Amino acid sequence: MELDRVLKSWAVPKGPPRRSANKRLAVQVEDHPYAYKDFEGAIPEGEYGAGTAAKWDAGTYAAEGAHNLAESERSMRSGLRRGRVSFVLNGSKLRGTYSLVRLKSPKQWLLIKKHAKE
């Protein structure tokens, strides 16, 4: 997710949840420069993140309940500091409202797909 001119990133070993109320471990990794947003290719052995990198999804997001970009960014920053943030994804694969909730370890979060409102 782009925020403050970097890509905030989490590794989700079992893949993101697709059904409401499902939870997945999400391990926060270092921020990536925004210029990496379209990178795909092989990262050599011995280098950080070694292996194949592929763009899995693309789209937009906004903090849940935000009415404009500035409000969304403030809400995202605040939520990430507090350890609980909800956002709406509008990607080609992932759509809907999700939450990230930090666990006791500062880098471990739960990624939760929230129930769709009827």
UniProtKB/TrEMBL annotation:
DNA ligase D 3'-phosphoesterase domain residues: 1-102
Region (Disordered): 1-21
Pfam families membership: LigD_N
Record protein name field: DNA ligase D-like protein (Predicted 3'-phosphoesterase)
Organism: Bradyrhizobium algeriense
